[in-house]
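Q: Could you write out the predicted structure for this multi-component system? I'm mainly interested in how the pieces pack against one another.
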Amino acid sequence: MPTQFDPPSGTRDFLAAEYEKREWAFGVLRSVFASYGFEPLQTPAFERLDVLLGKYGEDADKLVFKILRRGEHEASGEADLALRYDMTVPLARVAAAYGSQLPTPYKRYAIGPVWRADRPGRGRFREFVQCDLDILGSPSTLADAEVLAAHHDAMIGLGLTDFTILLNSRQVLSGLLEVFGVPPQLGSGVLISLDKLDKLSPDEVTAELAGRGLPGTIADDLVTAMTATDAEDRIRAALKDSEVGQAGVDEVDRLLALVAGQIPATRIAFTPRMVRGLSYYTGPIWELAAAGVPGSVGSGGRYDHLIAQLGGPDVAATGTSIGIERVLMLLAGDQAAGRGRLDVAVTVLGDDLAADSFALASAGRAAGLRAGVYLGGSGKLGKQIKWASDNGARWCLIYGHAERATGEVTVRDLTSGEQQQVPAGEVGGYLAARAGDRSA
RNA sequence: GUGGGCGUAGCUCAGUUGGCAGAGCGCCAGGUUGUGGUCCUGGAUGUCGAGGGUUCAAAUCCCUUCGUCCACCCCA
């Protein structure tokens, strides 16, 4: 097939099987979030350009899909609107617009497509669904714990158990830089390099740190402490010398204690080396890793002043983002089986019988089943039964002149091949009585 | 944005030194005119991603372009 009929790169068509799998997953998320008392929020697919630009820096601005001005201004080539880039900026706008009308704290979830003018790759799209869970207005660690627990439960609800939550804190990272004597101006660069410890060897990271201008002995000490088998103990001990660092450790421990009843200890761990690249986090940070998926399958943290930076009120905030597209990749085989399109397939064995066939299908629907009549051009019964079978129907209702003469319908069970004559008026009840026997 | 791989039937892919466009699966028809799945027989697949060049001759070699995949970067 010519490639011009593929959807634009980085976008996808979802035919029935995949669509249903996705809808199932979104439904699981909605129900888990609702069970925690989070409420839904839906905002427009596009926002005013000035609402979106300049929020995350120039690099992010380049990834915003802009919408040209229309009408007489179109020739100007300027844009005044843009497709949303994430769910957080719209959240800030909503907080600014409806502030006092929103509950406090405001616990909301948002599931919907976002767009990025990015280069697509594996697990990376230009149009993808983002699923965010946030709490505005609570500075409490309880809020972080609730978000984290809900995220964990959502993953479990989706059938995922083989994942790990890497937990750290901004204060821990600040403390590390302090106790190891990293010059303040090198801080963010050093953290970016340390984040690569899960991909690069300790030596490579040490070299990269030196390349950033960090004195060799400091780089060495830092990498050694982070990668030792007893790294966590070493870091904990070292941070005792830092007020901010110790505060970070205390908060991480508090968070671990709060979620201990819901998240098994094997699935969550204090991970001092984990650094979230984004600079707006102000407290605990976390990332979910799963085997077989590039990057993370979710991440979040506390971001206390971001909402104000994005144009909203200056409220405490914490939240998490479920990497649903990547989670769906892990679910590839499981939920995709599909259960067919019909429960009841009705033959049409002649133009003069079609109206009765329609009525039979209607009776099937009234019995709570999915029912359809044969729309093809073949009058052959064999073709029609094959059609019924191809559509996954459990029953084929055979209704020809012989049946009409006796006022009965031949009900063929396509699983067993057994057939039974049923009075036409009782077909609905007959099917309803047997529909519960075996789940679809 | 940098480097590399790959674009052939609906799908997964073969295709030798340039020499008639192939297989499996799926699809259609028949065997069986009122009985699907299994089986047997037969049939159709097509802009060889697109454009240009070399050649008697190009899926094959060269150039360009588009798409796609992998690594780096960045993210979800």
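A: Regarding packing and overall arrangement: Residues 16-35 of chain A form the longest helix (20 residues).
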